[in-house]
Amino acid sequence: MEIEPIETDKHLDIEIEIENENEEDKEQQQNHKQKKKQKQNNKEKKLKEKPLLIDIEGLKVPFPFPYVYPEQYQYMKSLKRSLERGGIVLLEMPTGTGKTVSLYSIILAFMCHSNKFNKLVYCTRTIPELEKSLEELKVVIEGWQYHYEKGNLNMSVNDLPSKMICTGLSSRRNLCIHNTVSTEKNPMTLDSMCRGLTCQANRIRHLKDETVSNCPYYEKFLEIEELGELLETTNNYDPMDLQQASILSPGVYTLEDLRKVGAELGICPYYLARSSLVVSSVVVHSYQYVLDPKISNIVIGENLDREKCIVVFDEAHNLDSVCLEALSMNLDSSTLTDGIQLIKTLQEYVEQKKMISKKLLEKEYDFLVNKFASNQGYTTKDDLPVTVSDELKQNPVLSQDVIEECVPGSIRKSEHFLSNLSRFSTYLSTITNVKEVFQQAPWEFRQEMLSKTQIAEYPMRFYPDRLMILFKTLEITNLNEYMSLILITNLAALLTTYDRGFLVIIEPLEKSVGSFSDCVFQFVCLDPSICFKPVTEFKSVVITSGTLSPLSFYPKILGFTPVASHSFPMSVSRNCLCPLIVTKGSDQSAISTKFDVRNDPSCVRNYGSLLVVMCKIVPDGIVCFFPSYNYMESIVSIWIDSGVINSILEHKLLFIETQDPIETSTALQNYKYSCDCGRAAVLFCVARGKVSEGVDFDNHYGRCIILFGVPYPYTEDTVIKARMLYYLDKFEINETDFLNFDAMRISAQCAGRVLRSKDDYGVVIFADNRFNRKQRKNKLPKWILQFLHQGSVNISVDVCRGIAKNFFSEMSVRIPKEKQIGVSLLSENELKNLN
């Protein structure tokens, strides 16, 4: 079981720049825009028919379509009961069955007919999912408007969802409309350019000299003082009461809508979205805005009444991984070396400031004598919120008692702070030079550091905030250049804030002859429940996805007791999904990617034979998932020599995902173009990669999914080993159980790419004899298991070919809608009978 570890740098963004908004998201947004018109036309056509008004246990729920799936009805019924009780609910909904529409329909109905909740925070993984979610919300609200105009709703027009403000929130890169800044491709550089134009020092320079560039959109935003003053003084607010103060009128605003409004009004869409958070009844944004303590305070806010708020985590099958990543950090040797050099640069700046403006440094020191919670002095309006205390509370992961304390005297003066930071950075650089893996508990690491450097741990908690204040004093806005130093200060705060559930790991990265080229310092979170704990403060939390099985794992590792857990099967008029477990080749020899047999000639040959056979009978696109990049590269090399690739190219084109995001984006675009042209193609991907998580292969883009092997994580990884030991100790989950759970949820996620609606269909081939074992097979979701039968498991390549060929022959005949009603579609009459 060999998987290339997927590493991402953490805490690279100072405010609310989210790392998963990357280059692949841009390509997905383009595809999303191309489909939006077609989907909107289909939805408008459906709305011309009479939308349903569903009675769910006495609650009238306007539903935007004339039919509802049985699983949608049961889903909304379960969710209503959970909202009434409060607490956390786990709901697994079959993929492609209208989960988002169901969520919005029942939650808006509950909010409008009850004063129990006044805000919905909807969390998605990617930008395309965010945009798609808001488009679905628009359709749901149109259904409400229809029923109101027909007199079916006994309520005031002001109580309708159409009178709510519903906004999306993202980073500057996705919202900026400045002519120069918006053209910058590097998100960190764009962020620095924005800060440079909007900081108070630059604005003052512009007032004195008009040739100095500023941001007119930000200046226009600052002219609206009434909103800023209201937000500063309001406590225990009701969003509906504050909407009169909002720049935005009631409605649903996607990121594209925000950019349009910003351009029309001449106002910065980024700050417009942030200022609208407090008045919005529905907010849609990334997971990290709720889970990452570095940014959650600034987004969620202290004034938000958690007793009246619903939080939804959509596509939440990797929720535990997001929690772990939010509190983990990696620093390599080059980052530490760069940080030490940057400290020297800052020390020179401080000396220059002493000569030019000593009063500025004295003012900074006076501010630091006061408590962080104080709003006196040293406030600026170069960012929102305008008070220093609010800005400090977003950095990085300080507990409330720390935030309210004074900055320690040892780091109040700039030169003393930089001296402390230099000693800490030098110590990290010295110890991050090992030839073997070194592990230590955080408290042990701090004790050893204290004995060798005399650095007290208490001041280290304030390093990130102290550095931000110093940047303001020195008028430094190009924070991208100081990212190494920012990472070091964030690491210092984490090291001195957390103990149990964390581990310090120093590990060599690459080994050459007799030496190591680099080492990495890792502060690793082993317990996802630590990050998830603040979420439990909300009155109601919905964790939902198409691949949450087995549901019992998530409460254990996230540390909560659910009020309900449900997994819904798929209602079908025909078996639109054909899952097959292929365990042997045509020669009856076993196939598997298990390490000791994966390179066996017969195994590689049979895998190639399976793919060639499917290329001959599958009418459109085929997507193949491999357990790692290394294995995919090795097997492709063998297939080239053996002629398998040439056989594939006789029937379809071939595209391959790489570790380069631009190359992958191009390959994916060309793959879909080939399918659109009728040429059809095969796409080689890696499980746990970008394609397996964030890309849909609906209709002809994915008529067949093949999983070559069980996608286990790389079990020799030091972090994975440490995490398994911790899970066994705290959660009593042994290594085998968790690895099977993790591998099967990834497998189910890959399989779900093939089915994106009730009208869609496809074959999913689990090509490994290990899939046939009960301990793995039973961890698949119900909506996959319901299509597995005795004749579709433990089969050979030849049997697989016959079953798949018959399946596609059956799917070529569409079932009329009349025959679906009462089976996979419920009309108004069927709903009355149910009630």
UniProtKB/TrEMBL annotation:
User: One Pfam family, short name please?
Assistant: HBB
Name the catalysed reactions. ATP + H2O = ADP + phosphate + H(+)
Q: Which domain of life is it from?
A: Eukaryota
Biased composition (Acidic residues) is annotated at 15-26
UniProt cross-references to Gene3D superfamilies, sorted A to Z:
P-loop containing nucleotide triphosphate hydrolases
Annotated EC: 5.6.2.3
GO molecular function ontology, one term from the record: helicase activity
Occurrences of domain Helicase ATP-binding (ranges): 58-362
Entry's localization field: Nucleus
Signal in keyword set: no
Q: Where is this region: Disordered?
A: 1-45
Q: Which InterPro entries match?
A: ATP-dep_Helicase_C, DinG/Rad3-like, HBB, Helic_SF1/SF2_ATP-bd_DinG/Rad3, Helicase-like_DEXD_c2, P-loop_NTPase, RAD3-like_helicase_DEAD, Rad3/Chl1-like
**Any coiled-coil regions, as ranges:** none
- Cofactor(s) demanded: [4Fe-4S] cluster
Its keywords, alphabetically, are: 4Fe-4S, ATP-binding, DNA damage, DNA repair, DNA-binding, Helicase, Hydrolase, Iron, Iron-sulfur, Isomerase, Metal-binding, Nucleotide-binding, Nucleus
What protein family is recorded?
Belongs to the helicase family. RAD3/XPD subfamily.
UniProt-listed NCBIfam families: rad3
Its protein name is DNA 5'-3' helicase
